[in-house]
Write a structure and sequence with these properties.
CATH architecture: 2-Layer Sandwich
Oligomer: single chain
Radius of gyration: 14 Å
Strand content: 25-35%
CATH topology: Alpha-Beta Plaits
Number of domains: 1
């Protein structure tokens, strides 16, 4: 499994619009590009991180170009971003992530 971590600082007041566009874009990648979904998280400093999961790096590269899965949502996200930090590419070596909380 392959993981990409994205990191952004948003423009002031753009959180809600960015989050909705991120949900739409992520859903489109899941439905049409074979991604394994993503999680969006906000750090204490107010920046956002997204952890996107893919079956492989090759699939991530092939399915990310040439056009986004949801061009409109991607444009909204870009408009709300003040600064993008370099993404991080990771190969999962061991996965102990629980999908359900303890009963």
């Amino acid at each position: 499994m392959f993981v990409v971590i994205y990191h952004w600082k948003l423009k002031p007041g753009g959180d809600a619009e960015f989050r909705e566009a991120w949900r739409q874009a992520t859903q489109a990648f899941y439905k049409t590009r074979e991604s394994l979904g993503s999680q969006l998280m906000q750090a204490n400093d107010g920046t956002y991180y997204a952890v996107a999961r893919w079956p492989s790096r090759d699939l991530w590269i092939r399915r990310s170009e040439p056009e986004p899965a949801d061009p409109q949502a991607s444009r909204i996200m870009v408009d709300m971003i003040e600064m993008s930090f370099p993404h991080i590419e990771l190969e999962v070596t061991d996965d102990m992530l629980a999908l359900e909380p303890h009963a």
